[in-house]
Specification:
30% strand, alpha+beta, 3-stranded antiparallel beta sheet, elongated
Length: 74
């Protein structure tokens, strides 16, 4: 099983907010535990990166295991 997670970029190209992803992995297995997306509102008075969403909450899955990702894709 394999899945890709495409992420935004640190650019304002196409008038989108810059973003980046933070991957939290298990130290021993290196399996992903969380994938957090942070965005920057470039029009804010004091721009700062803020958490936009976390992948398990965004897709309403219990974890990022291969079985959860497979069920999500089905």
């Amino acid at each position: 099983m394999h899945f890709n997670i495409a992420s935004g970029a640190l650019t304002t190209f196409r008038q989108a907010y810059p973003s980046f992803r933070r991957f939290v992995v298990d130290k021993e297995t290196l399996l992903p535990l969380q994938v957090e997306t942070y965005t920057l509102d470039v029009n804010a008075e004091n721009p700062d990166f803020e958490l936009d969403h976390e992948l398990t909450e965004w897709y309403n899955v219990t974890d990022l295991s291969p079985s959860s990702m497979s069920a999500l894709s089905d």
